[in-house]
Amino acid sequence: MAYDVVIVGSGAGGGMAAYVLTKAGARVALLEAGAPWDNAKDSKMLTPTYASPRRGGSTPEKPFGEFDGCIGGWEIAGEPYTRAPGTEFTWWRARMVGGRTNHWGRISLRFGPHDFKGKTRDGLGDDWPIGYDDVAPWYDRVDRLIGVFGSRENLPNHPDGIFLPPPAPRCAELLMKKAADKIGVTCIPSRLSIITKPLNGRPPCHYCGQCSRGCSTNSNFSSTNVLIAPALRTGRLTLLTGAMAREVTIGKDGRATGVTCIDKASASDRHIPAPIVVLAASAFESARLLLNSTSSLFPQGLANSSGTVGKYITDTTGSYVGGYVPALAEMPPHNHEGVGGMHVYMPWWGDNSKLDFPRGYHIEPGGGIYEPGAGFMGGIQDFPGAGGGWGRELKAKYRKYWGSTVGFSGRGEMIPNDDTFCEVDPEVVDRWGIPVLRFHWKWTDHEYNQVRHMQQTFRALIEAMGGTPLGDMPPKERGYGISTGGEIIHELGGARMGDDPKSSVVNRWCQAHDVKNLFIADGAPFVSQADKNPTWTILALAMRTADYIAQQRGKGAL
Ligand SMILES: Cc1cc2nc3c(=O)[nH]c(=O)nc-3n(C[C@H](O)[C@H](O)[C@H](O)COP(=O)(O)OP(=O)(O)OC[C@H]3O[C@@H](n4cnc5c(N)ncnc54)[C@H](O)[C@@H]3O)c2cc1C
Ligand code: SF4
User: According to the model, what pLDDT value does residue 332 have?
Assistant: First the structure.
């Protein structure tokens, strides 16, 4: 079969590109390195923990637990990555249809107007060549197609969307809201891509709280069942699983001619020709593909005349504080049902002119009662005054304290810096002989000071709930408890967008400056992070890029 477009990667970005392009009439080949997956059949939603002798514990392919909806992990056999001396970095990769969208947290936030123009506001990093108004129509379309719940708040830099009704706060969340109001932290209903009303043939959530396992009724968003399944129904999508892209091939005229991939089942190479190539293998995998696609025309990697492929990479900053809240102990049994995620969240509320760090962070609260698994509560002896015990006494203690802890996770904006980048490791290759990435990572005081502020705020919130933080604030020498680079799994950059081909890889349509028929539809083109999770913006930009491709194809311009 002849293809009009070949897409690499079937996660958020690749799924959206496949959806839009097949609907627009293109014949598309979608290459996915991982295994097939269908949430309707493969999700372990509603499987009781006691159904497995492992009680839901982790396996090498499912580090977040055997019922989790993601095949992959921090380490994948035969697919290493390396770290430069002194670098701490970790990289979560999915290897399955839908990528990480089968188990992601579904926190679905729009970037705001300030997030696209950071440099203009505080002189740091770089501005995007586009602004919020350029992306807003696609955010609207993503909201209508996929569905997101939330509330209209009219907050500065936290644009409202087209929301379905949010679920009501649960017991611990009501207390968190009260505490946030008390200390002046904004607290509003969360914004998750889980449908609370029927939408586009999908039934609403039935509040089983198990979103990370994948949803058998497709009431939450996964690329697999919300984008790729309808794309397959057009009859124009060929989904090739176990197909690991090795490089983008190039003709004598400097145009992309297709993608060479390894068919993992036969361990043989195969070329998928197409006049348009879209990379959506996840930000750093796409950078890796560009760096590994060398030729006499592009000796330092494809689309890399600027030398910026692999540069300006970032992750979200993260820090956590847990606390014991006596008011939540010995709670009478009642219905704690909800979606598999928070019902309230705290968007950035601060004023940087009064702070010692730029930009901001948001807070993801956790707590309440859910189906316990092996090792739940992490040791009863650590609860204030609980001690140990046996038999009936021990059970009574678990009943007393279950649900009495809360936790606050901060997710903040990192500023790109020259010491944080990835490159091809000159020596190490993966099991197919493809050179792997070597990472360099450095947080700066911008991030350390922000994380110290997180720690102070989370402790104040716990105290305002009448609780006690569990553990002391990590000292400066331990970075105030900052996450390891990559750990928050919001990696972005590596092929950033810009108007100037000398300092950027793709233009405002995510089209490579150097190769007009090559596009990137994942997080690689992001110029900066924000104090928001990135995937709603990956989806909006992928839709915008795919629309542009369809329009240019229509004009014969590609
Ligand atoms: C536990 C968890 C929670 C998260 N929660 C949130 C959240 O609440 N909100 C949010 O905004 N984001 C969240 N994220 C991040 C979110 O999942 C990612 O931003 C998003 O999935 C990125 O989409 P993508 O298409 O770029 O990459 P992916 O979803 O990773 O998909 C990339 C796909 O490409 C395939 N691939 C890679 N290399 C190749 C190759 N060479 N050839 C062929 N195929 C290849 C991979 O197998 C994979 O399937 C979370 C992530 C995790 C892991
Ligand atoms: S909580 Fe709702 S969306 Fe999540 S798995 Fe259960 S039914 Fe699906």
Answer: 86
Kindly report the protein residue whose alpha carbon is nearest to atom 50 of ligand 1.
104
Within 344-486, strands assigned E span 344-345, 361-367, 405-412, 421-429, 435-440, 468-469
Which of 214-246 are b and which e, b meaning 16 or more Cβ less than 10 Å from the residue's Cβ? bbbbbbbbbbbbbbbbbbbebebbbbbbbbbbb
Query: Which range among 305-314, 335-344, 481-490 shows the weakest confidence by mean pLDDT?
Result: 335-344
- The letter for the amino acid at 365 is P
Question: Per-residue pLDDT for 1 more than 80?
Answer: no
Contact assessment for residue 549 and residue 557, using Cβ atoms and an 8 Å cutoff: no
| Ligand 1 midpoint to CA 518 (Å) | 20
CA-CA distance, 408 to 346, in Å (whole number)?
10
Residue 406 backbone phi and psi in degrees, to 5: -130, 165
The closest of 48, 337, 386, 61 to 207, measured between CA atoms, is 337
Q: Which pLDDT value is given to residue 106?
A: 98
Is 217's C-beta closer than 6 angstroms to any atom of ligand 2? yes
Query: Ligand 1: does its nearest atom lie under 6 Å from the Cβ of 69?
Result: no
| pTM of structure | 0.98
What is the C-alpha end-to-end distance of the chain, expressed in Å?
20
| Cβ within 8 Å of residue 325, ≥6 positions away | 172, 175, 367, 404, 405, 406, 462, 465, 466, 467
Provide CB contacts within 8 A for 478, sequence distance 6+: none
Which two three-digit tokens encode residue 98?
């839908």
Paired sense of beta strands 344-345 and 243-250, if any:
unpaired
Side chain identity at residue 233, one-letter code: R
pLDDT tens track for 94-112: 999 999 999 999 999 999 9
CB distance 319 to 480 below 8 Å: yes
Residues found in the chain? 558
Residues 6+ apart with CB under 8 A from 86: none
Compute the distance between CA of residue 49 and CA of residue 44 in angstroms, rounded to an integer: 10
523 within 8 A of 314, measured Cβ to Cβ: no
Distance CA 479, CA 459 (A): 17
Whether the predicted pLDDT of 248 surpasses 90: yes
Backbone angles phi and psi of 421, in degrees to 5: -160, 170
- Residue 55 to residue 47: CA distance in whole angstroms: 11
Side chain identity, residue 470: L
* Ligand 2 near 212 CB (within 6 A): no
Highest mean pLDDT pick, 332-336, 394-398, 432-436: 432-436
Q: Is 219 in the pocket of ligand 2 (CB under 6 A)?
A: yes
Strand order in the sheet with 82-83: 82-83, 435-440, 421-429
Ligand 1 contacts CB of residue 539 (under 6 A): no
Instruction: Specify the ligand 2 atom closest to the Cα of 210.
Output: 5
Distance of CA 377 to the CA centre of its chain: 27
